[in-house]
From TrEMBL:
Family membership noted in the UniProt record: Belongs to the class-I pyridoxal-phosphate-dependent aminotransferase family.
Organism, as annotated: Actinomadura algeriensis
Record-given protein name: Aspartate aminotransferase
Keyword set, alphabetical order: Aminotransferase, Pyridoxal phosphate, Transferase
PANTHER family from the UniProt entry: ASPARTATE AMINOTRANSFERASE
Cofactor field: pyridoxal 5'-phosphate
Keyword Oxidoreductase part of the UniProt annotation: no
Domain Aminotransferase class I/classII large positions: 146-476
Signal peptide region: none
């Protein structure tokens, strides 16, 4: 049974918006006059003749301003004092807004970064291990390409330039996931693309537990329900297929509309990679339950062992898998905000593309043209960038491995990171000592203690949907690579970056903090 698309159907396709000019303001069409009912309320329309939301009933005509009595247009503004309120400018005219904005908490990853910045400004020594930034300099070739396109100020196609879409299609094809440029859509970062995708798909979303903080948050912002499903042991990023099937069946039995499942390959926050068998089983469940798969593969080029394969669901369920990636992790261009999505083949994929472009046209119009040009160069993978990504991968592997060693030496249970720049230690073996010595009962208690007493910024596992009582945390060591580009370039070039003075000093500081926190050193527990 095909996956359901709420916004498009075979007999009512959504127009392709990719070639449309983006406009910031659309004037109202005032050319029509009332015909059927002279007393009917006017109907506001756009230049395309589409009724404006909130306008009057569709059988009325557009407003004819020429027919208005000029004297009515020139009438003086009603003095608000006649309504029993002070006139503007008079004492007491300020009036509080009678409602409060929707409470939306700041993303946990951004919040910890701001907390560390405050402590640093107070002169407190900090260890920034909370923010998931790649921590290496932008390659000069990328800045050269960006500068070469800096004069491109015009709006472009909503889907992205042909140059960029062809380059991204080639990038995926070289990884065993053939792509047509027409099935590629770009946006100002993979994060907005994900939001637009979820808006197009609709319904509830299954997310791994734990998983990147924004998956569940975006589903909730769009009015859906995030269903958290645990991952298999040691295979973060992909919900357990058996538990996925059970969760979806139960949710639908209570009236929920579950339409999609998100996976992360490799995973944030655990730094692990799901097996081929798990991915194949997930695809089979998605087919049986008519689910769309959104595969976030932003870290796929940062697998520590280059011989290991990332098994994308797009290889096993191409008709129902969307793949996203961006420049922010492998090329450390997070601030450039440029992402791409590869949509499924077939009728559903085309309908999803039309819907996604419609959402994008109303939200960002088109991604920045200079960024698109630089991204096209990046996705073409010239040798200089391939080498840069390879050095980044080796740096991440060396430092995350050294950080994992420090946590294991302190008695935490740690799985060796396999990709990206994250470590996910579990202090469960030390629960009794932490509870007795520091009153720690939850992961938030533990990370709060590390921040306030030691200036160590890490994120509790509960921020990623993990059990709040589990003493797990995400540690992101990539901001230890250097205080400036000179140190970061040295770290990239070093055969043993963990031995560089500034990185070794940070590692020693982490060991001291853990030793002081726990008072005794546990046995190493690397999995």
């Amino acid at each position: 049974m095909p996956a359901h698309n709420p916004t498009a159907s075979a007999d009512a396709p959504v127009p392709d918006a990719s070639a449309a000019e983006a406009e910031s303001d659309t004037p109202l069409d005032t050319s029509a006059t009332a015909e059927a009912d002279p007393g009917a309320a006017p109907r506001a329309t756009s230049t395309a003749g589409t009724p404006v939301l909130g306008a009057a009933a569709p059988d009325t005509a557009a407003l004819d301003t020429a027919a208005l009595d000029a004297s009515a247009l020139d009438a003086p503004v009603l003095d608000s004092s006649a309504l029993g309120r002070p006139a503007p400018g008079r004492p007491g005219d300020a009036r509080p807004v009678p409602f409060t904005p929707r409470p939306v908490p700041l993303s946990a990853t951004l919040a910890v970064n701001e907390a560390l910045a405050r402590k640093r400004s107070e002169g407190i020594e900090v260890l920034p291990l909370g923010f998931g930034e790649a921590g290496v300099p932008i390659h000069p070739a990328l800045t050269r390409e960006l500068a070469a396109a800096a004069d491109r100020g015009a709006y472009g196609p909503v889907a992205g330039s042909g140059e960029l879409r062809a380059a991204a299609a080639g990038y995926w094809t070289r990884r065993g996931v053939p792509a047509d440029p027409d099935a590629v859509v770009c946006g100002p970062g993979s994060k907005p693309l994900l939001y637009a995708l979820l808006a197009s798909i609709g319904g509830d979303v299954v997310v791994p537990a734990p998983s990147w903080v924004s998956y569940a948050a975006q589903a909730s912002l769009l009015g859906g329900e995030p269903l958290r499903v645990a991952t298999p042991p040691g295979e973060g990023g992909v919900p357990s297929p058996a538990l996925l099937a059970d969760a979806v069946v139960r949710a639908r039995a209570r009236g929920r509309s579950v339409r999609s499942v998100i996976v992360t390959l490799p995973d944030n926050p655990t730094g692990t990679l799901a097996s081929e068998e798990t991915v194949r089983r997930l695809c089979a469940v998605a087919r049986d339950l008519d689910l769309l798969i959104v595969s976030d593969e932003i870290y796929r080029d940062l697998v520590h062992d280059p011989a290991r394969t990332v098994h994308s669901p797009a290889r096993y369920a191409p008709e129902r898998t969307v793949v996203t990636t961006a420049l922010s992790k492998s090329l450390a261009a997070g601030g450039w905000r440029l992402g791409v999505a590869r949509l499924p083949d077939g009728p559903f994929g085309r309908a999803l593309r039309d819907s996604l472009l419609g959402v994008a046209s109303e939200v960002w119009s088109s991604a920045p043209a200079p960024m698109q040009h630089a991204a096209a160069y990046a996705f073409a993978e010239p040798p200089e960038l391939v080498e840069h990504v390879d050095r980044s991968r080796r740096l991440h592997a060396a430092v995350t491995g050294a950080v994992a060693d420090r946590f294991a030496a302190a008695g935490a249970r740690v799985r060796r990171p396999e990709a990206a720049f994250y470590v996910y230690p579990d202090f469960g073996p030390l629960r009794d000592a932490l509870g007795a010595g520091h009153g720690v009962r939850t992961a938030a208690d533990l990370t709060g203690l590390l921040l306030e007493r030691y200036g160590v910024g890490v994120l509790p596992g509960c921020a990623f949907g993990d059990d709040p009582g589990a003493l797990r945390m995400r540690v992101a060591p990539s901001l230890l690579y250097g205080r400036d580009d000179e140190e970061r370039l040295a770290a990239l070039a070093s055969p043993d970056p963990a031995a560089l003075p500034w990185i070794a000093g940070a590692l020693d500081r982490l060991g001291e903090v853990l030793g002081d926190l726990l008072e005794t050193v546990g046995e190493p527990a690397l999995a």
